[in-house]
């Protein structure tokens, strides 16, 4: 079949497979907040921007007003004297007969005012008697005292009289006067003069400056997670409170970091019934124009913004088939892998833990200029167009020979290949490159060295959705025309954050391209933002772990591309070796945790139906102290690529149960995760169980607990192994469970235990 006829055939199939427009949902992975269509938001100030708090966009925000210099005057909860003369009957205000528009002195307007007449005794005054003794923090007023000398006087609970401001004369006419302090137990406020005067405004601050945003869901819900994003360097205290009735409030936290810019997830276990949610800031009063910001407040049910995981199904791929590793040319050595294999190095160091190797094949290693011939067919003599020495056949042939078939992520960015570099017809440029790639490397038309191709690794910045769509269409069409057996994947995408357009699958993978894709592709790392703004690495079952975004991607895939594969092409944890640290990286765990979390994550992927998972990275990096520098399965080149505990734990697990498949959930609670594994025929062979808790530098007695669960069948246990990666073998013998029928009881910690069932 010619290349053109292949394309026409594929287009015909694609046309038949395109889902009806009504079935396609670009946002299918999103989990909306509770009451998303009926909830309302109220704020202390600046109503104009309040809807930004509930618009579902973390990039838009509400900015409060400022209490000072004059913002507090309009707020009855802060200004004790706002419209005070009409606040009760009889009026608390007294003044001489003949005074005019007295209410205008307390109406939050500097353009209106009260004229206070001089009484028969020669004194002009206005007095406000407070309903109860009250502490005052600030007075703010303006008036005209051209005919005499006035003063602001207060009476206090102890009977004393204090002049707050005196000697108000013509030089201070129409001047805003501010007086800050603490006057306790004030019972009366008075402005008094020896002649008539005009008072345009008089305000008294009696509560501290605060700003707040309150979400009303219009009904009571059982809330599992609140997600909020706020920030202010002008706040001296931030709190979260909830209420079912807007009358009785429960303070969830009163110690939040005011300038915590990243969003934060508050977990409620058990869930809490609530209707109202409030973020409140106490504002620094040492200056004017101090403000706070809120980006988003939302409440979620079970599963939070990730949603619940899918219903479990028997996995179609064994754990060995599932597990892969991210590598690079030469595996950290300065030589081709065919040479390394002869020395027992390179890819041979990883075939015990991986059945697939993902390589970052850089576009600029193949091409000096887009549109050139990459010279793959002659590279054994000429090198590639981009590198005179490069021969991918030598490299990939050795990977395949070592038992690690190659998955390629074809990598570029806006610096290597900006949009302009793709020429006037980006589709054709990508098509030709994809066609040549498949014809040379493909399983049936080429060398057979490459099984899959990703159209980019993370080309999220510098390429809008329309432009990336042209490249993706070109690559997928060209690959299919060159060799239909090459699996076609988009770049790594996510389905839970639409504001990050560069990586959002809802915009990057349009409906017409979906039939041409064999699997969706995502990177998931178990990161979590603490309430102080620091991002850390957590265990994979953590309620707020970004690894849970896999649930959103599964939901999107099941809606729009049912039956297609799901690949996790990057996951992992950083861990420092003894005597080292992770440098600038805060996303770091212990080596024991890295090993335990690695096995636990692989089990979670199998339980969720992931088709392929690649650990990042193959080895630690010399001379590097940032994120991902300590995520290797093996140590650095300088250290001889020694085995890390995570490598040993994976090797032990795959040696013992690599041929097994996820079959069913025996338990999945806050106390225990236990999965039943089986052979290809579905006969149970193992049980993998652990406590879903953090793991520290070493196992502590307090980490272990007796747990009970039901596996759903009767079987005897032949052996048990704790997969801690500490021992050279990667595991140590563990106590067998106590079994009564299908009911099991055993001691477990955060380190997973694999129980081998009797045949």
Structural overview:
With 759 residues, the protein is an alpha+beta fold. 16% of the residues lie in helices and 32% in strands. It contains twelve helices and 35 strands. It has an eight-stranded parallel beta sheet. Strand 27 and strand 28 form a beta hairpin. Helix 11 runs parallel beside helix 12. The longest helix has 18 residues. The chain is elongated, with a radius of gyration of 34 Å. The N terminus is likely disordered.
Please render the helix and strand layout as text:
Elements: H1 3-17, E1 40-43, E2 62-63, E3 93-94, E4 114-116, E5 124-144, E6 150-156, E7 161-168, E8 177-193, E9 197-205, E10 210-231, E11 235-243, E12 249-256, E13 264-283, E14 293-300, H2 319-322, E15 323-327, H3 337-342, E16 357-362, H4 363-366, H5 379-382, H6 392-401, E17 406-411, H7 426-441, E18 450-455, H8 465-482, E19 487-490, H9 505-508, E20 519-523, E21 527-529, E22 535-537, H10 549-560, E23 565-571, E24 574-575, E25 588-589, H11 591-607, E26 612-615, H12 645-657, E27 661-668, E28 673-678, E29 684-690, E30 705-710, E31 717-722, E32 732-733, E33 738-740, E34 743-748, E35 753-757
Parallel strand pairs: 15-16, 15-26, 16-17, 17-18, 18-19, 20-23, 23-26, 24-25
Antiparallel strand pairs: 1-10, 2-14, 3-5, 4-9, 5-8, 5-9, 6-7, 6-8, 10-13, 10-14, 11-12, 11-13, 21-22, 27-28, 28-29, 29-35, 30-34, 31-32, 31-35, 33-34
Helix pairs in contact: 1-8, 7-8, 11-12
């Amino acid at each position: 079949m010619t290349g053109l006829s292949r394309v026409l055939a594929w287009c015909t199939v694609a046309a038949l497979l395109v889902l009806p427009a009504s079935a396609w949902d670009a946002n299918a992975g999103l989990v909306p907040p509770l009451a998303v269509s009926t909830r309302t938001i109220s704020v202390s100030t600046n109503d104009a921007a309040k809807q930004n708090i509930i618009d579902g966009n973390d990039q838009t925000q509400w900015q409060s007003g400022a209490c000072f210099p004059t913002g507090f005057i309009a707020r009855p909860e802060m200004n004790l004297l706002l419209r005070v003369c009409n606040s009760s009957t009889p009026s608390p205000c007294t003044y001489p007969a003949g005074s005019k528009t007295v209410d205008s002195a307390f109406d939050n307007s500097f353009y209106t005012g009260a004229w206070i007449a001089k009484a028969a005794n020669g004194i002009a005054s206005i007095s406000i008697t407070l309903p109860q003794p009250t502490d005052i923090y600030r007075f703010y007023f303006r008036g005209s005292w051209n005919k005499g000398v006035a003063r602001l006087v207060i009476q206090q609970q102890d009977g004393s009289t204090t002049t707050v401001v005196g000697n108000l004369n013509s030089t201070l006419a129409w001047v805003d006067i501010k007086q800050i302090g603490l006057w306790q137990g004030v019972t009366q406020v008075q402005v008094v003069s020896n002649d008539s005067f005009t008072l345009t405004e008089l305000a008294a601050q009696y509560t501290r400056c605060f700003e707040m945003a309150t979400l009303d869901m219009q009904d009571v819900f059982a809330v599992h997670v609140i997600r909020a994003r706020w920030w202010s360097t002008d706040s001296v205290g931030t709190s979260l409170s909830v209420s079912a009735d807007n009358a009785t409030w429960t303070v969830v936290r009163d110690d939040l970091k005011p300038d915590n810019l990243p969003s934060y997830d508050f977990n409620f276990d058990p869930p809490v019934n609530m209707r109202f949610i409030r973020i409140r800031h106490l504002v620094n009063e040492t200056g004017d124009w101090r403000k706070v910001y809120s980006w988003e407040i939302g409440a979620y049910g079970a599963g939070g913004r990730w949603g619940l995981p899918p219903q479990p199904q028997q996995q179609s791929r064994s754990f060995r088939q599932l597990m892969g590793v991210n590598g690079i040319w030469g595996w950290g050595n300065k030589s081709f892998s065919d040479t390394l294999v002869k020395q027992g190095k390179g890819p041979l160091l990883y075939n015990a833990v991986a059945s697939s190797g993902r390589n970052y094949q850089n576009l600029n290693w193949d091409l000096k200029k887009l549109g050139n011939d990459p010279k793959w067919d002659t590279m054994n003599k000429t090198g590639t167009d981009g590198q005179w020495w490069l021969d991918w056949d030598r490299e990939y042939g050795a990977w395949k020979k070592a038992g690690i078939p190659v998955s390629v992520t074809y990598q570029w960015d806006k610096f290597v290949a900006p949009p302009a570099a793709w020429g006037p017809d980006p589709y054709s440029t990508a098509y030709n490159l994809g066609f040549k790639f498949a014809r040379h490397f493909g399983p049936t038309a080429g060398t057979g060295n490459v099984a899959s191709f990703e159209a980019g690794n993370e080309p999220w910045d510098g390429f809008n959705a329309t432009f990336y769509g042209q490249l993706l269409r070109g690559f997928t069409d060209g690959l299919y025309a060159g060799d239909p057996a090459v699996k076609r994947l988009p770049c790594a995408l996510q389905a839970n954050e639409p504001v990050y357009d560069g990586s959002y699958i809802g915009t990057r993978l349009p409906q017409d391209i979906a039939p041409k894709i064999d699997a969706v592709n995502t990177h998931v790392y178990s990161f979590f933002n603490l309430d102080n703004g620091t991002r850390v690495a957590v265990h994979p079952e953590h309620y707020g772990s970004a690894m849970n975004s896999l649930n959103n991607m599964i939901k999107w895939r099941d809606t729009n591309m049912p039956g297609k594969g799901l690949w996790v092409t990057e996951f992992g944890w950083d861990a420092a070796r003894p005597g080292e640290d992770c440098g600038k990286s805060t996303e770091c765990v212990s080596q024991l945790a890295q090993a335990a979390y690695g096995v636990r994550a692989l089990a979670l992927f199998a339980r969720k139906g992931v088709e392929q998972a690649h650990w990042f990275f193959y080895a630690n990096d010399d001379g590097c102290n940032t994120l991902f520098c300590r995520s290797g399965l093996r140590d650095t080149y300088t250290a001889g690529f020694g085995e890390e505990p995570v490598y040993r734990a994976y090797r032990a697990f795959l040696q013992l149960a690599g041929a097994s498949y996820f079959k069913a959930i025996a338990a999945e609670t806050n106390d225990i995760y236990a999965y039943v594994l089986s052979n290809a025929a579905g006969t149970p062979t193992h049980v993998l169980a652990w406590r879903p808790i953090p793991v520290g530098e070493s196992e502590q007695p307090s980490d272990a607990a007796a747990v009970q669960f039901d596996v759903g069948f009767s079987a005897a246990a032949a052996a048990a192994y704790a997969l801690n990666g500490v021992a050279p073998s990667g595991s140590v013998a563990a106590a067998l469970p106590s079994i009564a029928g299908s009911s099991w009881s055993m001691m477990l910690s955060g380190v997973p235990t694999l129980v081998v069932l009797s045949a």
